[in-house]
Design a protein that fits this description.
Blueprint: E1 5-6, E2 11-12, E3 14-21, E4 26-27, E5 31-34, H1 35-38, E6 45-50, E7 60-65, E8 69-74, E9 80-86, E10 89-91, H2 110-113, E11 124-129, E12 136-141, E13 147-152, E14 165-171, E15 177-187, E16 193-203, E17 208-217, E18 223-233, E19 243-245, E20 248-253, E21 276-282, E22 289-295, E23 301-308, E24 314-320, E25 329-335, H3 342-347, E26 352-354, E27 359-370, H4 372-386, E28 392-393
Parallel strand pairs: 20-28
Antiparallel strand pairs: 1-2, 3-4, 3-14, 5-6, 6-7, 7-8, 8-9, 9-10, 11-18, 12-13, 14-15, 15-16, 16-17, 17-27, 18-25, 18-26, 19-22, 20-21, 21-24, 22-23, 23-27, 24-25
Protein backbone atom coordinates (compact mmCIF):
# COMPACT_ATOMS: atom_id res chain seq x y z
CA UNK A 1 0.00 0.00 0.00
CA UNK A 2 1.05 3.63 -0.37
CA UNK A 3 2.01 5.20 2.91
CA UNK A 4 2.78 8.96 3.12
CA UNK A 5 5.69 9.21 5.55
CA UNK A 6 5.96 12.72 6.96
CA UNK A 7 9.33 14.42 7.31
CA UNK A 8 10.21 17.93 8.40
CA UNK A 9 9.78 19.51 4.97
CA UNK A 10 8.10 17.06 2.61
CA UNK A 11 5.82 14.06 2.45
CA UNK A 12 7.75 11.01 1.35
CA UNK A 13 5.78 8.51 -0.67
CA UNK A 14 6.53 4.87 0.06
CA UNK A 15 5.36 1.38 -0.78
CA UNK A 16 4.95 -0.88 2.27
CA UNK A 17 4.41 -4.65 2.35
CA UNK A 18 3.61 -6.43 5.61
CA UNK A 19 5.36 -9.82 5.63
CA UNK A 20 4.67 -10.84 9.23
CA UNK A 21 2.23 -9.53 11.80
CA UNK A 22 1.55 -12.11 14.48
CA UNK A 23 -1.23 -10.08 16.11
CA UNK A 24 -3.12 -9.75 12.84
CA UNK A 25 -2.47 -13.32 11.69
CA UNK A 26 -0.38 -12.26 8.67
CA UNK A 27 2.51 -14.37 7.40
CA UNK A 28 3.90 -14.30 3.86
CA UNK A 29 6.34 -17.21 3.29
CA UNK A 30 7.77 -15.98 -0.03
CA UNK A 31 7.69 -12.55 -1.67
CA UNK A 32 9.79 -10.38 -3.97
CA UNK A 33 9.71 -6.95 -5.54
CA UNK A 34 12.10 -5.09 -7.82
CA UNK A 35 12.65 -1.78 -9.56
CA UNK A 36 10.97 -3.25 -12.66
CA UNK A 37 7.64 -3.38 -10.84
CA UNK A 38 7.93 -0.02 -9.08
CA UNK A 39 9.44 1.76 -12.07
CA UNK A 40 12.02 3.85 -10.21
CA UNK A 41 14.66 3.49 -12.94
CA UNK A 42 17.48 2.09 -10.78
CA UNK A 43 18.17 -1.63 -10.42
CA UNK A 44 17.27 -2.96 -6.98
CA UNK A 45 15.27 -5.80 -5.42
CA UNK A 46 13.99 -7.13 -2.11
CA UNK A 47 13.27 -10.83 -1.70
CA UNK A 48 11.91 -12.83 1.23
CA UNK A 49 12.02 -16.62 1.62
CA UNK A 50 12.15 -19.36 4.26
CA UNK A 51 15.02 -21.83 4.68
CA UNK A 52 14.28 -25.55 4.99
CA UNK A 53 16.41 -28.30 6.51
CA UNK A 54 18.92 -28.80 9.31
CA UNK A 55 19.18 -26.35 12.16
CA UNK A 56 18.23 -23.59 9.69
CA UNK A 57 14.75 -25.07 9.22
CA UNK A 58 12.01 -22.38 9.39
CA UNK A 59 14.46 -19.46 9.43
CA UNK A 60 13.15 -16.47 7.43
CA UNK A 61 15.60 -14.29 5.49
CA UNK A 62 15.07 -11.07 3.56
CA UNK A 63 17.69 -10.01 0.99
CA UNK A 64 17.91 -6.30 0.18
CA UNK A 65 19.94 -5.45 -2.95
CA UNK A 66 20.39 -1.78 -3.87
CA UNK A 67 22.27 -2.47 -7.11
CA UNK A 68 25.75 -2.32 -5.53
CA UNK A 69 25.27 -3.39 -1.92
CA UNK A 70 23.22 -6.36 -0.77
CA UNK A 71 22.60 -7.71 2.72
CA UNK A 72 20.52 -10.45 4.34
CA UNK A 73 18.25 -9.57 7.27
CA UNK A 74 17.11 -12.43 9.52
CA UNK A 75 13.74 -11.72 11.20
CA UNK A 76 13.86 -15.12 12.92
CA UNK A 77 17.05 -14.12 14.71
CA UNK A 78 16.13 -10.76 16.20
CA UNK A 79 16.46 -8.80 12.93
CA UNK A 80 20.21 -9.37 12.75
CA UNK A 81 22.15 -9.18 9.47
CA UNK A 82 23.65 -12.50 8.39
CA UNK A 83 25.98 -11.39 5.61
CA UNK A 84 26.37 -8.96 2.71
CA UNK A 85 28.11 -8.25 -0.58
CA UNK A 86 29.48 -5.05 -2.04
CA UNK A 87 30.54 -5.13 -5.69
CA UNK A 88 31.53 -8.77 -5.35
CA UNK A 89 33.30 -8.42 -1.99
CA UNK A 90 31.99 -10.52 0.90
CA UNK A 91 30.76 -8.74 4.01
CA UNK A 92 30.82 -10.80 7.17
CA UNK A 93 33.10 -13.59 8.36
CA UNK A 94 33.57 -17.35 8.17
CA UNK A 95 32.30 -18.67 11.49
CA UNK A 96 32.68 -22.34 12.44
CA UNK A 97 28.86 -22.18 12.59
CA UNK A 98 28.30 -22.31 8.84
CA UNK A 99 24.55 -21.89 8.55
CA UNK A 100 21.89 -19.81 10.26
CA UNK A 101 20.55 -21.52 13.39
CA UNK A 102 16.91 -21.34 14.42
CA UNK A 103 16.50 -20.25 18.06
CA UNK A 104 14.83 -23.62 18.76
CA UNK A 105 18.28 -25.21 18.58
CA UNK A 106 20.12 -22.74 20.83
CA UNK A 107 20.55 -23.48 24.54
CA UNK A 108 21.70 -20.14 25.97
CA UNK A 109 22.64 -21.76 29.28
CA UNK A 110 25.00 -24.34 27.71
CA UNK A 111 28.70 -24.29 28.68
CA UNK A 112 28.10 -22.12 31.72
CA UNK A 113 26.07 -19.50 29.88
CA UNK A 114 28.03 -19.49 26.60
CA UNK A 115 25.30 -21.14 24.51
CA UNK A 116 24.83 -17.93 22.48
CA UNK A 117 27.96 -18.99 20.58
CA UNK A 118 26.13 -22.04 19.17
CA UNK A 119 24.51 -19.76 16.58
CA UNK A 120 27.04 -16.93 16.30
CA UNK A 121 27.83 -16.28 12.63
CA UNK A 122 26.21 -12.97 11.71
CA UNK A 123 27.85 -9.95 10.14
CA UNK A 124 25.89 -7.70 12.51
CA UNK A 125 24.15 -9.06 15.60
CA UNK A 126 22.59 -7.14 18.47
CA UNK A 127 23.37 -8.07 22.05
CA UNK A 128 20.87 -7.25 24.82
CA UNK A 129 18.28 -6.08 25.56
CA UNK A 130 18.24 -6.88 29.28
CA UNK A 131 21.94 -7.68 29.42
CA UNK A 132 25.08 -7.84 27.31
CA UNK A 133 28.56 -9.18 27.91
CA UNK A 134 29.99 -12.09 29.84
CA UNK A 135 27.81 -14.58 31.73
CA UNK A 136 27.51 -13.67 35.37
CA UNK A 137 25.38 -13.85 38.47
CA UNK A 138 23.05 -10.93 39.07
CA UNK A 139 20.19 -10.12 41.42
CA UNK A 140 16.61 -9.70 40.18
CA UNK A 141 13.24 -9.25 41.87
CA UNK A 142 11.17 -12.45 41.59
CA UNK A 143 7.38 -12.88 41.47
CA UNK A 144 7.13 -12.66 45.26
CA UNK A 145 8.90 -9.31 45.36
CA UNK A 146 12.08 -10.79 46.85
CA UNK A 147 15.63 -10.55 45.60
CA UNK A 148 16.90 -13.65 43.84
CA UNK A 149 20.27 -14.49 42.31
CA UNK A 150 20.17 -15.68 38.69
CA UNK A 151 22.73 -16.48 35.99
CA UNK A 152 22.66 -14.11 33.04
CA UNK A 153 23.89 -15.72 29.83
CA UNK A 154 26.34 -14.34 27.27
CA UNK A 155 25.03 -11.29 25.36
CA UNK A 156 21.40 -11.72 26.34
CA UNK A 157 18.37 -13.00 24.42
CA UNK A 158 17.43 -10.54 21.67
CA UNK A 159 19.41 -12.29 18.89
CA UNK A 160 17.42 -15.47 19.51
CA UNK A 161 13.90 -13.99 19.48
CA UNK A 162 11.90 -13.94 16.21
CA UNK A 163 10.33 -10.65 15.13
CA UNK A 164 6.58 -10.33 15.65
CA UNK A 165 6.14 -7.67 12.95
CA UNK A 166 8.14 -7.46 9.71
CA UNK A 167 7.62 -5.04 6.82
CA UNK A 168 9.44 -4.14 3.62
CA UNK A 169 9.45 -0.46 2.68
CA UNK A 170 10.46 1.21 -0.60
CA UNK A 171 10.69 4.96 -1.06
CA UNK A 172 9.01 6.02 -4.29
CA UNK A 173 10.92 9.30 -4.54
CA UNK A 174 14.69 9.79 -4.95
CA UNK A 175 17.00 8.66 -3.43
CA UNK A 176 14.67 5.60 -3.20
CA UNK A 177 15.25 4.34 0.31
CA UNK A 178 14.94 0.55 0.56
CA UNK A 179 14.70 -1.48 3.70
CA UNK A 180 13.13 -3.75 6.24
CA UNK A 181 11.35 -2.80 9.45
CA UNK A 182 10.68 -5.08 12.40
CA UNK A 183 9.43 -5.27 15.96
CA UNK A 184 10.92 -7.76 18.43
CA UNK A 185 9.66 -8.26 21.99
CA UNK A 186 11.81 -9.42 24.90
CA UNK A 187 9.11 -10.20 27.44
CA UNK A 188 8.42 -12.15 30.59
CA UNK A 189 5.74 -12.26 33.24
CA UNK A 190 7.26 -10.70 36.40
CA UNK A 191 10.26 -9.68 34.31
CA UNK A 192 11.48 -7.45 31.49
CA UNK A 193 9.02 -6.18 28.90
CA UNK A 194 11.18 -4.49 26.28
CA UNK A 195 10.23 -3.67 22.69
CA UNK A 196 12.82 -3.29 19.91
CA UNK A 197 11.57 -1.38 16.85
CA UNK A 198 14.15 -1.41 14.08
CA UNK A 199 14.59 -0.03 10.59
CA UNK A 200 17.43 -1.35 8.41
CA UNK A 201 17.73 0.76 5.28
CA UNK A 202 19.91 1.67 2.33
CA UNK A 203 19.44 3.79 -0.79
CA UNK A 204 19.75 2.90 -4.44
CA UNK A 205 23.39 2.13 -5.39
CA UNK A 206 24.69 3.36 -2.03
CA UNK A 207 27.80 2.02 -0.27
CA UNK A 208 26.09 2.19 3.15
CA UNK A 209 23.30 0.76 5.24
CA UNK A 210 21.74 2.29 8.32
CA UNK A 211 20.39 0.49 11.41
CA UNK A 212 18.01 2.69 13.40
CA UNK A 213 16.67 1.22 16.63
CA UNK A 214 14.25 2.29 19.33
CA UNK A 215 14.07 0.31 22.59
CA UNK A 216 11.00 0.93 24.72
CA UNK A 217 10.14 -0.11 28.27
CA UNK A 218 6.54 -1.41 28.20
CA UNK A 219 6.34 -1.97 31.96
CA UNK A 220 4.66 0.33 34.48
CA UNK A 221 7.86 0.44 36.53
CA UNK A 222 11.43 1.43 35.61
CA UNK A 223 13.63 -1.25 34.05
CA UNK A 224 17.21 -1.72 32.86
CA UNK A 225 18.40 -1.93 29.27
CA UNK A 226 21.72 -2.67 27.56
CA UNK A 227 22.45 -2.70 23.82
CA UNK A 228 25.57 -3.62 21.84
CA UNK A 229 26.08 -3.88 18.08
CA UNK A 230 28.46 -6.78 17.38
CA UNK A 231 29.78 -5.90 13.88
CA UNK A 232 32.08 -8.64 12.58
CA UNK A 233 34.51 -8.63 9.66
CA UNK A 234 36.68 -11.30 8.08
CA UNK A 235 38.41 -11.55 4.69
CA UNK A 236 38.84 -9.59 2.43
CA UNK A 237 38.76 -6.61 4.80
CA UNK A 238 40.61 -8.47 7.56
CA UNK A 239 44.08 -9.71 6.64
CA UNK A 240 47.65 -9.49 7.85
CA UNK A 241 48.38 -5.78 8.18
CA UNK A 242 44.79 -4.61 8.53
CA UNK A 243 44.66 -1.59 10.85
CA UNK A 244 42.00 -0.27 13.21
CA UNK A 245 41.49 3.49 13.12
CA UNK A 246 39.30 5.59 15.41
CA UNK A 247 39.51 8.84 17.42
CA UNK A 248 40.37 7.10 20.69
CA UNK A 249 40.13 9.18 23.86
CA UNK A 250 40.88 6.41 26.36
CA UNK A 251 41.73 2.73 25.95
CA UNK A 252 42.19 -0.15 28.39
CA UNK A 253 42.54 -3.90 27.87
CA UNK A 254 39.91 -6.43 28.78
CA UNK A 255 40.69 -9.71 30.59
CA UNK A 256 44.46 -10.15 30.97
CA UNK A 257 45.35 -8.54 27.63
CA UNK A 258 47.91 -5.74 27.65
CA UNK A 259 47.72 -2.68 25.42
CA UNK A 260 50.80 -2.91 23.21
CA UNK A 261 52.02 -0.48 20.57
CA UNK A 262 50.53 -2.61 17.79
CA UNK A 263 47.14 -3.29 19.39
CA UNK A 264 45.54 -1.63 16.35
CA UNK A 265 47.25 -3.91 13.79
CA UNK A 266 45.95 -7.37 12.91
CA UNK A 267 48.06 -10.40 12.18
CA UNK A 268 47.53 -13.37 9.87
CA UNK A 269 45.42 -16.38 10.85
CA UNK A 270 47.17 -18.13 13.74
CA UNK A 271 46.09 -21.48 15.11
CA UNK A 272 45.55 -21.32 18.87
CA UNK A 273 45.47 -17.52 19.05
CA UNK A 274 43.78 -16.34 22.26
CA UNK A 275 41.17 -13.65 21.61
CA UNK A 276 41.87 -10.10 22.74
CA UNK A 277 39.51 -7.23 23.51
CA UNK A 278 40.05 -3.56 24.24
CA UNK A 279 37.62 -1.12 25.87
CA UNK A 280 37.57 2.45 24.55
CA UNK A 281 35.96 5.82 24.82
CA UNK A 282 35.87 7.54 21.42
CA UNK A 283 35.78 11.24 20.65
CA UNK A 284 32.88 12.69 18.69
CA UNK A 285 32.55 15.66 16.37
CA UNK A 286 30.60 18.83 17.21
CA UNK A 287 27.32 16.88 16.91
CA UNK A 288 28.57 13.89 18.90
CA UNK A 289 29.17 11.52 15.98
CA UNK A 290 32.27 9.38 15.60
CA UNK A 291 33.74 6.95 13.09
CA UNK A 292 35.67 3.68 13.53
CA UNK A 293 37.40 1.90 10.65
CA UNK A 294 39.20 -1.21 9.50
CA UNK A 295 41.65 -0.54 6.65
CA UNK A 296 43.33 -3.42 4.83
CA UNK A 297 47.09 -3.72 4.48
CA UNK A 298 47.61 -1.78 1.24
CA UNK A 299 44.93 0.83 1.97
CA UNK A 300 42.67 -0.10 -0.94
CA UNK A 301 39.71 -1.49 1.04
CA UNK A 302 38.05 -0.29 4.23
CA UNK A 303 34.86 -0.57 6.25
CA UNK A 304 33.61 2.08 8.64
CA UNK A 305 31.03 2.45 11.41
CA UNK A 306 29.47 5.82 12.17
CA UNK A 307 27.42 6.37 15.33
CA UNK A 308 26.65 8.80 18.12
CA UNK A 309 28.84 8.66 21.24
CA UNK A 310 25.87 10.12 23.13
CA UNK A 311 23.73 7.08 22.24
CA UNK A 312 26.57 4.52 22.28
CA UNK A 313 29.30 5.87 24.57
CA UNK A 314 31.26 2.62 25.01
CA UNK A 315 33.29 0.85 22.31
CA UNK A 316 35.00 -2.56 22.23
CA UNK A 317 37.57 -3.75 19.70
CA UNK A 318 37.64 -7.55 19.42
CA UNK A 319 40.65 -9.29 17.88
CA UNK A 320 40.23 -13.00 17.17
CA UNK A 321 42.86 -13.80 14.56
CA UNK A 322 42.70 -17.56 14.96
CA UNK A 323 42.85 -19.96 12.02
CA UNK A 324 40.29 -19.57 9.25
CA UNK A 325 38.67 -22.83 10.37
CA UNK A 326 38.17 -21.53 13.91
CA UNK A 327 36.75 -18.11 12.99
CA UNK A 328 39.26 -15.46 11.87
CA UNK A 329 37.42 -12.23 12.69
CA UNK A 330 37.59 -8.66 13.95
CA UNK A 331 34.72 -7.11 15.88
CA UNK A 332 33.80 -3.43 16.08
CA UNK A 333 31.29 -3.08 18.92
CA UNK A 334 29.65 0.23 19.88
CA UNK A 335 27.36 -0.09 22.89
CA UNK A 336 25.52 1.59 25.73
CA UNK A 337 27.98 0.00 28.18
CA UNK A 338 30.98 -2.29 28.20
CA UNK A 339 30.43 -6.07 27.92
CA UNK A 340 31.28 -6.83 31.53
CA UNK A 341 28.71 -8.76 33.57
CA UNK A 342 25.67 -6.56 34.20
CA UNK A 343 26.25 -6.37 37.96
CA UNK A 344 29.69 -4.90 37.35
CA UNK A 345 28.39 -2.33 34.85
CA UNK A 346 25.55 -1.34 37.17
CA UNK A 347 28.02 -0.63 39.98
CA UNK A 348 29.79 1.77 37.60
CA UNK A 349 26.49 3.41 36.60
CA UNK A 350 26.77 2.35 32.97
CA UNK A 351 23.49 0.41 32.75
CA UNK A 352 20.68 2.41 31.13
CA UNK A 353 17.53 2.81 33.22
CA UNK A 354 14.29 3.36 31.30
CA UNK A 355 11.28 4.95 32.95
CA UNK A 356 7.84 3.45 32.29
CA UNK A 357 7.06 4.05 28.62
CA UNK A 358 10.47 5.62 27.94
CA UNK A 359 12.13 4.93 24.59
CA UNK A 360 15.86 4.86 23.86
CA UNK A 361 17.13 5.70 20.36
CA UNK A 362 20.37 4.27 18.94
CA UNK A 363 21.79 3.33 15.59
CA UNK A 364 24.84 2.70 13.46
CA UNK A 365 25.76 3.27 9.81
CA UNK A 366 28.02 0.70 8.10
CA UNK A 367 29.88 1.77 4.96
CA UNK A 368 32.30 0.15 2.50
CA UNK A 369 35.11 2.12 0.86
CA UNK A 370 37.13 0.95 -2.16
CA UNK A 371 40.19 2.49 -3.77
CA UNK A 372 43.04 4.41 -2.14
CA UNK A 373 41.51 7.82 -2.75
CA UNK A 374 38.16 6.92 -1.14
CA UNK A 375 39.84 5.13 1.78
CA UNK A 376 42.17 8.07 2.39
CA UNK A 377 39.22 10.48 2.33
CA UNK A 378 37.43 8.56 5.09
CA UNK A 379 40.66 8.22 7.08
CA UNK A 380 40.92 11.99 6.95
CA UNK A 381 37.39 12.35 8.34
CA UNK A 382 38.31 10.04 11.22
CA UNK A 383 41.55 11.89 11.95
CA UNK A 384 39.72 15.24 11.88
CA UNK A 385 37.49 14.07 14.74
CA UNK A 386 40.56 13.13 16.77
CA UNK A 387 42.33 16.43 16.09
CA UNK A 388 45.40 16.89 18.28
CA UNK A 389 44.13 14.69 21.11
CA UNK A 390 46.49 11.90 22.18
CA UNK A 391 44.70 8.88 23.68
CA UNK A 392 45.07 8.00 27.34
CA UNK A 393 46.46 4.46 27.28
CA UNK A 394 45.87 2.24 30.32
CA UNK A 395 48.17 -0.69 29.63
CA UNK A 396 46.82 -3.12 32.23
CA UNK A 397 43.19 -4.14 32.96
CA UNK A 398 41.60 -1.79 35.51
CA UNK A 399 38.51 -2.38 37.60
CA UNK A 400 36.64 0.77 36.62
CA UNK A 401 37.11 0.41 32.87
Amino acid sequence: MLNPKKSTNTIERSFVKTLTDVGRGIYVPRWAISSNEIGTGDRWCIEKCRIHGGTSDSVDIITVDNGKLSFVVVPTRGMGIWKGDYQGLFLGWQSPVKNLVHPHYVDLEARGGLGWLQAFNEWVVRCGLSNIGDPGVDTVIDNTGKEKEVMLTLHGRIANIPASIVKARIGLDPPHELGVEGVVYEQSMFGPNLELTTSITTTSRSNSLRISDVVGNLRSVPDEMQLLYHCNFGSPFLEEGTRFLAPVQRIAPYWTTKVTENFDVFGPPESGFIEQAYFMRLLGDDEGYTKAMLVNGDGTKAVSLSFSVKELPCFTLWKNTVSIEDGYVAGLEPATSFPNPRRSERERKRVTNLRPGERYHAGVTLSIHLGKDEVQKVRGETEKIRGEVEPVVIKEPVLGF
